[in-house]
From TrEMBL:
The keyword Cell membrane applies. InterPro entries: UPF0750_membrane (IPR051461), YitT (IPR003740). GO terms for cellular component: plasma membrane. PANTHER family: UPF0750 MEMBRANE PROTEIN YITT (PTHR33545:SF5), UPF0750 MEMBRANE PROTEIN YITT-RELATED (PTHR33545). Its main location: membrane. It comes from Alkalicoccobacillus plakortidis. Keywords: Cell membrane, Membrane, Transmembrane, Transmembrane helix. It is found in: Cell membrane. The keyword Cell membrane applies. The chain crosses the membrane at residues 7-32, 44-66, 73-95, 101-124, 144-165, 171-193. This is YitT family protein. It is a multi-pass membrane protein.
Length: 203
C-alpha cells in the first residue's frame, strides 16, 4: 500500500471513529470529552452550535503556535482537524433519538472509539488539532507519552464543563476520558511513537 493511500485511509478511519463515538454515544447522554472536542461539546450543550465548527475556531491559537514553532505538526494536523470537524458535524444529523446503549457502556465504548481513532492517526503523525496538537508538540520536545498528556488535558476540559452537566454525567465523562486516554496510550506505545527521534521545537 502506498504511503499516500495509507495516510488517507488512516485519516478517514480515525475521523470516522471519533465522529461516531461523539455523536452516537457521547451526545446521547450529554457527556463531555476532553480537550478541544470537550470545549466543542460544552458550546454545543450551552448554545446548540456545531461541535466541529467550534473545534476549528478554538484550535486557531494552537495552530498559530504550531506554525511558529513546529511547522511539520501544523501541516500534519491540518487535514485531521478539518476532516474530523466536518465529519463530526455531518454525523450530527444522524444522532439517534433513542440511545443505542446504556450510559456506562456508551461512555466506555465512545471513549475507546475516540482513543483508537486518535491513536491510529498519531502513528502517522496526524492529529485532530487542538490540545492533541499541543500534546504532540510537547511529546516531541520531551519523553512523555502523547496519550498521557492528552489524559491531563482532557480531564481539565471535563472539570471546565462541571457547570454544564450533572454529577452523574461528570462521572461518566471522566470514565469516557480515561477510556480515550488508555486506548490512545496503548496504541501509541505499541506503535513506538516516542521511540523515534524528532527534531526539537524551535524556541
Amino acid at each position: 500500500m502506498g504511503k499516500g493511500l495509507r495516510y488517507v485511509l488512516v485519516l478517514f478511519l480515525g475521523c470516522l471513529l471519533i465522529s461516531v463515538g461523539i455523536n452516537f454515544f457521547f451526545v446521547s447522554y450529554h457527556l463531555l470529552d476532553g480537550g478541544i472536542i470537550g470545549v466543542g461539546l460544552i458550546a454545543h450543550y450551552l448554545w446548540n452550535v456545531p461541535v466541529g465548527m467550534t473545534i476549528i475556531v478554538v484550535s486557531i491559537p494552537i495552530y498559530i503556535l504550531a506554525w511558529m514553532y513546529y511547522r511539520p505538526f501544523f501541516f500534519n494536523s491540518l487535514a485531521g482537524v478539518i476532516v474530523s470537524s466536518l465529519m463530526i458535524d455531518f454525523f450530527a444529523a444522524f444522532i439517534p433519538e433513542t440511545p443505542l446503549l446504556g450510559p456506562l457502556t456508551s461512555a466506555i465504548l465512545g471513549g475507546l472509539m475516540l482513543g483508537v481513532g486518535a491513536g491510529i492517526m498519531f502513528l502517522l503523525d496526524i492529529s485532530t488539532g487542538g490540545f492533541d496538537l499541543l500534546a504532540q508538540m510537547i511529546s516531541a520536545k520531551t519523553t512523555w507519552n502523547v496519550g498521557v498528556l492528552i489524559v491531563g488535558f482532557d480531564l481539565a476540559a471535563v472539570v471546565a464543563g462541571i457547570p454544564v452537566i450533572t454529577v452523574d454525567e461528570i462521572i461518566l465523562s471522566t470514565i469516557a476520558v480515561i477510556a480515550t486516554g488508555t486506548a490512545t496510550t496503548v496504541i501509541t506505545a505499541a506503535g513506538g511513537v516516542n521511540a523515534h527521534p524528532r527534531p526539537p521545537l524551535r524556541i
